[in-house]
């Protein structure tokens, strides 16, 4: 279920409709049952081995993982770390739609972080008492420990591919139940379970951008090396992007 947004154009919606037909065909594959069973088993075994939490950004991968956690049979903390200045506002519409359906199956928590223009290099965490420390997941780790369940996938980068090749779907500190899935698999799963889909994935300039590589990460602070991302942000989120 694509979450609507006034930022989407008619051309964006038409391009998405074409892709949705593809998603529906893949979602009907009978092999999904065994694939979901495997992911659920991975999550349960990781949770049984010790205290842990699941993280989400409300992007495609972490929404799938949030659903897998919610339907795994174990009730776990689900954590969303929010960026004060740079948060993508459409993440909240995905959050509300998901929690409206599955909120009673997870223990949901939010944490705030502050960062400068290069937010990924300079993040400070604000806990519930207003105390500040560095590190995006400092807050969740204080409450739930460092073991976590994530939507990391091997397809996304060489480094992630190497990590998953070494540890598989679950190592001692991290669980990656969709680690070997492709982005195509992820979109099919979202369609299969009618899960909320962040509108950023349809913000394709009418099909110019490949939705597989669009991100819902915080807006702004993009360097020259990421010019394509910066152009996309200025097109769809000009009200949030920090002007030079």
TrEMBL record:
Residues 52-202 form the Phosphoadenosine phosphosulphate reductase domain. Signal peptide: none annotated. Gene3D superfamilies: HUPs. It comes from the Bacteria. GO terms for molecular function: catalytic activity. InterPro entries: PAPS_reduct_dom (IPR002500), Rossmann-like_a/b/a_fold (IPR014729). This is Phosphoadenosine phosphosulfate reductase family protein. It comes from Cutibacterium porci.
């Amino acid at each position: 279920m694509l979450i609507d947004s006034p930022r989407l154009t008619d051309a964006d919606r038409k391009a998405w409709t074409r892709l949705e037909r593809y998603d529906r065909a893949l979602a009907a594959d009978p092999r999904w049952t065994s694939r979901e069973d495997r992911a659920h088993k991975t999550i349960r075994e990781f949770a049984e081995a010790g205290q842990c939490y699941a993280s989400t950004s409300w992007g495609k991968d972490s929404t799938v993982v949030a659903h897998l956690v919610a339907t795994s049979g174990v009730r776990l903390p689900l954590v969303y770390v929010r960026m004060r200045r740079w948060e993508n506002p459409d993440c909240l519409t995905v959050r509300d739609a998901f929690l409206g359906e599955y909120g009673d199956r997870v223990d949901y928590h939010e944490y705030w972080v502050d960062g400068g223009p290069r937010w990924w290099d300079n993040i400070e965490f604000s806990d519930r008492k207003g105390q500040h420390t560095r590190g995006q997941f400092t807050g969740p780790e204080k409450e739930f420990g460092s073991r976590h369940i994530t939507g990391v996938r091997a397809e996304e980068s060489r480094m992630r591919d190497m990590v998953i090749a070494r540890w598989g779907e679950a190592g001692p500190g991290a669980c990656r139940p969709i680690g070997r899935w492709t982005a195509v698999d992820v979109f099919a799963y979202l369609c299969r379970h009618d899960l909320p889909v962040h509108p950023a994935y349809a913000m394709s300039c009418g099909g110019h951008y490949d939705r597989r590589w669009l991100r819902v990460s915080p807006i702004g602070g993009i360097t020259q090396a990421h010019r394509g991302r910066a152009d996309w942000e200025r097109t769809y989120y000009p009200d949030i992007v920090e002007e030079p």
